Amino acid sequence: MAEHDNDIKQENPSLSPQVGRAGGMAEFAALIFSLGTSTKTNDKLQALSTYFSHANEKDKVWVIALFSGRRPRRTVNGTQLTAWCCELVELPVWLFQECYHTVGDLSETIALLIPDNKDSSTYKASHSLHYYVEQFQQLEKGTEQEKKTFILQSWQELSSQERFVFNKLLSGTFRVGVSQKLMVNALARTVQLEPNIIAHRISGNWAPATTSFEQLLSEQSTQTDFSKPYPFYLAYALEGPLQDLGEPTDWQAEWKWDGIRGQIIKRNDQLFVWSRGEDLITDKFPEYTILQSKLDNGIVLDGEILPYNDGQVLNFNVLQTRIGRKNITKKNLQEAPVGFFAYDLLELNGEEIRHWALSERRAALEKLVASLQLSWLQLSPMVTFNNWEELTTIREQSRSLNSEGLMLKRRSSAYQVGRKRGDWWKWKIDPLTIDAVMIYAQKGTGRRSNLYTDYTFAVKDGDKLVPFTKAYSGLTDKEFAQVDAFVKKNSLEKFGPVRTVKPELVFEIAFEGIAASNRHKSGVALRFPRISRWRTDKLPNDINTLEDLKQMLELYGK
Length: 558
Description:
alpha+beta, DNA ligase i, domain 1, D-amino Acid Aminotransferase, Chain A, domain 1, 3 domains, 7-stranded mixed beta sheet, 20 helices, DNA recombination
């Protein structure tokens, strides 16, 4: 079961559905495995539609929550699960670890090691999905013994397939390859609402444990959530030539900023700040509090939260010092000041205006931002150009402005839901690259659990090799198999799951940014590193040096 693939796949016949089980957790587990093994969108759509047509009402609410990123908090860790499983099946830890390294997934390893109870009366005791998930929540502050008792009991009443899904839920690693758009379309087949209305209804700050399916999606629903954001409109990467877009005058160009996409909402005299991942982050940015008094009610701004000071957009690395902190100190505010670059206006005077043309929304946005007179609240500036050739030249300035490239938006476009082709395109600059040699390898997880696919790379520093980054994506399946064969034949040392290998294979590593780091031996940390290509045309002596990395840091790490 591949976690790297962000998908649950049925790869082991031992996890096949149990005959005679239906409803509740069994029905949910069957849905998960159906979605994981389907390759056609229509098949996934049908599986979801069937589930929403027949499932328990409370279970349906939890499926919506889980599939839209509202996973329950992890109540136990992997070490505890391992110990309890070993105790239950009377297995030494070393043998469990061997099984785990072979299977490649902790949840699946446990599901396979615990034998199914053949007593059909025990099967009938398994509960609904909402029972298990809500028990997780109640046990969050429970004692370790209370958690252990609940988990052991659940393991023994569930089938192997259900147990696998149960483990994923309680360990916080539940992920399934279903887009929110697909789920919304499936729901649209079972409720009398348009997909865009459903997408808006299921966003925001609602709690699945206390929200009914009718409250959430009934046509007559009167629930009021003043914090509710709109689904974000996302762009596709530009693939063809600019000339295919038609007349340049039909398009608005903006810089593609590298920050946190967010919405600022003022309703009912309350201010809310949401990230694109639907995290409510109001408390993370106290600088925005002034908008509670300056904005009228019924305003929704879409834009980018950026590190910003003295009229200049700073490197994203500055913002990272604030991400993940529970409490923002005065020192954090001084060292990592933020601004908000407004892209769009989605609601004005309490009226949703997403259907307006972009040019109309932009005009209203310009008027609103100008009236607020806040130095940190900026309009995302439009890039003026006369033809596509001129815009191509302008794009080369992106990195010097701490921008990732350009956004192209059709002036007549409405603000849509999700990722749509045709009206909004992102035109990113090429990533930074450096040639490096592989020095360590580790087996992957899921379907790659028997292959060495996770690598550590090094650059030269005189006659030494200095590790500087890891990467596990970017090669084809055939190339991964070839590198795996090399690792097995050329291992020098073994440290647990990691092998030191002969420094002979050269790869081009691509990355989006670089920052100074005290935690890394090289003194640098890369943003979004991945393998760009296998440089079979180069030898280890041809790789880049630590000095090259430091020069990149000087140029692009500010």
